[in-house]
Amino acid sequence: MTTTTPVEEDGVTRRDFLYVAAGGLSAVGAAAAIWPFIAQMNPSADVLALSTSEVDLDGIEIGSEITAVWQGKPVFVRHRTEGEIKKAEDVVIANLPDPQSDEERVIKPQWLVMVGVCTHLGCIPLKEQGDYSGWFCPCHGSHYDTSGRIRKGPAPKNLVIPPYEFLDDNNIRIG
Amino acid sequence: MSFEPKNSAVKWVEERLPIMGMLHHALYEYPTPKNLSYWWTFGSLAGVMLVVQIVSGIVLAMHYTPHVDLAFESVEHIMRDVNYGWLLRYMHANGASMFFIVVYLHMFRGLYYGSYKAPRELLWWLGLIIFVLMMATAFMGYVLPWGQMSFWGATVITNLFSAIPIVGESIVSWLWGGFSVDNPTLNRFFSLHYLLPFVIVGIVILHIWALHTSGSNNPTGVEIKDKQDSIPFHPYYTVKDLFGLAIFLIIFSAFLFYAPNYMGHPDNYIPANPLVTPAHIVPEWYFLPFYAILRAVPDKLGGVLLMFGAIAVLFALPWLDKSRIRSARFRPIFKQLFWVFGAVCVGLTYMGGQSADGNIAEIHGMVPVMIDGIAQMKDGVPLMEEGVTFAVTNVLVARILTVYYFLHLLVLLPVIGLFEKPRPLPASISEDVLSKTSPVKEADNA
Predict the structure, then answer these.
(1) A140, B177: Cβ pair inside 8 Å?
(2) CA B92 to chain centre
(3) Count of CB atoms within 10 A of residue B352's CB?
(4) HEC letters along B33-68
(5) Which residue of B has its CA nearest to A67?
(6) What local confidence, expressed as pLDDT, does residue A7 receive?
(7) Shortest Cα distance from A168 to chain B (angstroms)?
(8) Which of B9, B107, B264, B292 has the smallest count of CB within 10 Å of its CB?
(9) Interface with chain B: mutation pick from A131, A137, A139, A144, highest number of B CBs within 10 Å
């Protein structure tokens, strides 16, 4: 019997190598071909472009808030009262589910700016409600305090503080 | 009775593609146990509902526009302007509920009669895959009218994936195609809602193939042993299924023509508003037991895992149930636990529809005034107010039911399978059927 493929000493043939090499390259090629079909679902360029919003703080009375829109999400801009600020600052941080001081969550204590999306499953919490007089999410019962920190319920995190800056005393830019 | 075509044209086709022979085999030669009850009708009813949904869905897609500015309007256009649009849309919306009713009854039939046991494990799995695909399809379909419940249902369910550590947020934004549920989300849901039913058709074919390989289970759980035990599917069960279908269509029509919005939610007639969450979000009724499990867990990831786990655990059922007896008729303890389990599932469905922070029962009396968890004092005496002294919260009830759901499947089923003393099985299906008239058997069934 004649063999057309020379057998190496360890029993590996040229054909074995070609099988593995061709198979491996096909797998890489298939993955590369699939990628555009998966990546097309990620946010498109026009969606990514809408990334900042400006908010005029004038006319937001003490103890009231407005809801701005940033990246299609509601952003709560609250003019906090002295009482609310004091309550937020007096909390013992170590006992919180997501420990964070009120200071870390504001630029100016009277202005609380945060994404109004519950960190549990994305509902919009209701203001001035719940056991901690902050926000309460009606969907699954998460309670947030006057700093927007999670205190009770299924949400794992505090309400998210978006990146923002003061353009002047009465204007902020979110994003 | 093998298939021998007389017609020359049929013969010509049959030699090239033996499709008629296959159908003949499935209908005339498929031996079906002769004792199937009406509980065995729900499989064919589910098949009928799949066809109803596909046909009504295709024509609705001719009038619907998957765009955030137009979707709600186009559904109203279907309801008011399109010829018979109201009928087609109500048929499709109520059809989804009807589809789930028959599939749930079909599944509980399988649970009661042990239809998931060897050699029908793959048949059971394929059925579960159909169930999961149905849930995905129904969820995406509910988003399409772009009402308040559509939008917030989509938000809550897609956010479930944000519970996954590290990659969760990226997955959610990939699902959305943005930073919130928006036009890209609606568009892709429409595309997938149109696709998945045809995937279901494919799995249904495999499901029936697997069924015809192992044969139907039956109320005794005893396999067919000889010709005495079986009858041909056609005409015996085609007729029985048609009668079942007639009764079912009467019930379907009662909803369709007299209470078309009974199983819907009025909030979905409010156009979607991304800035206002409805006070009380509830999914469609067929998702409520799983929603109750999700809300029963105080931890986000834990809730999501348990909710998906409630379905995943069903895949392990053929190995969790240690009893070799299939039918609950011969399993005295399992039979009772089955009904408890059924009641727990109904209870979870009920709890899923209740508010997250309410109480199912409460006793009123005087309670201390609490602010931020601190009792308020006046002159060294706690301030009192009228309030709830004792409450059974919705969350507590949902937790107990959730624990029992898993207890039944993961602990009780394996354990009773080992210790239960089954009743004597009939020697054959025939013997069981013939003994039905004997006084002994009647006392047994009472």
Answers:
(1) no
(2) 17
(3) 23
(4) ECCCCHHHHHHHHHHHHHHHHHHHHHHHHCCCCCCC
(5) B275
(6) 60
(7) 27
(8) B9
(9) A139
- Reported as a pLDDT band with limits 50, 70 and 90, residue A75 is very high
Confirm whether B284 is a catalytic residue: yes
Residue by residue, what is the 3-state secondary structure of chain A? CCCCCCECCCCCEHHHHHHHHHHHHHHHHHHHHHHHHHHCCCCCHHHHHCCCEEEECCCCCCCCEEEEEECCEEEEEEECCHHHHHHHHCCCHHHCCCCCCCHHHCCCCCEEEEECCCCCCCCCCEEEECCCCEEEECCCCEEECCCCCEEECCCCCCCCCCCEEEEECCEEEEC
Distance CA B278, CA B303 (A): 22
Degrees to nearest 5, angle at CA A74 with B159 and A115: 75
Query: How far apart are the two ends of chain B, measured CA to CA in Å?
Result: 41
**pLDDT attached to residue B39:** 97
The CA-atom distances, in angstroms, between B372 and each of A91, A92, A124, A127, A145 are: 10, 12, 22, 16, 9
Inter-chain residue contact B155 with A132, CB threshold 8 Å = no
Q: Which pLDDT score, from 0 to 100, does residue B442 have?
A: 47
Phi, psi values for residue B382, rounded to 5°: -65, 140
Distance between CA atoms of residues B30 and B209, nearest Å: 11
Q: Break chain B down into helix, strand, coil percent, rounded to 5.
A: 65, 10, 25
pLDDT band at A48 (very low <50, low <70, confident <90, very high): confident
Q: Which of B91, B62, B92 is nearest to B77 (CA)?
A: B62
Report the C-alpha gap between B415 and A138 in whole angstroms.
40
For residue B350, CA distances in Å to A113, B102, B291 come to 38, 19, 10
CA atoms of A97 and B238, how far apart (whole Å): 60
Q: Is A127 exposed, middle or buried (0-12, 13-18, 19+ CB in 10 A)?
A: middle
Tens-digit pLDDT string for chain B (446 aa): 578 888 899 999 999 999 998 888 888 878 899 999 999 999 999 999 999 999 999 999 999 999 999 999 999 999 999 999 999 999 999 999 999 999 999 999 999 999 999 999 999 999 999 999 999 999 999 999 999 999 999 998 998 898 899 999 999 999 999 989 999 999 999 999 999 999 999 999 999 999 999 999 999 999 999 999 999 998 999 999 999 999 999 999 999 999 999 999 999 999 999 988 887 888 999 999 999 999 898 888 899 999 999 999 999 999 999 999 999 999 999 999 999 999 999 999 999 998 877 788 888 888 777 766 677 777 778 778 877 778 888 889 999 999 999 999 999 999 999 999 999 999 999 999 998 765 554 445 54
Total residue length of chain A: 175
Q: Considering B229, B241, B420, B432, which one is annotated as catalytic? A: B241
Residue B5 to residue B11: CA distance in whole angstroms: 6
The answer to whether the bond into A36 is cis (omega within 30° of 0) is no
CB contact at 8 A, A12 and A6? no
Q: Which of B176, B275, B357 lies nearest to residue A74, judging by beta carbons?
A: B275
User: Cβ–Cβ contacts within 10 Å for residue B180, how many?
Assistant: 22
Please work out, in degrees rounded to the nearest 5, the angle formed at the alpha carbon of residue B26 by the alpha carbons of B22 and B27: 120
Please answer whether residues B36 and B244 qualify as being in contact, where contact means their C-beta atoms are separated by less than 8 angstroms.
no
Q: What is the length of chain B?
A: 446
Q: What single letter denotes the amino acid at residue B40?
A: W
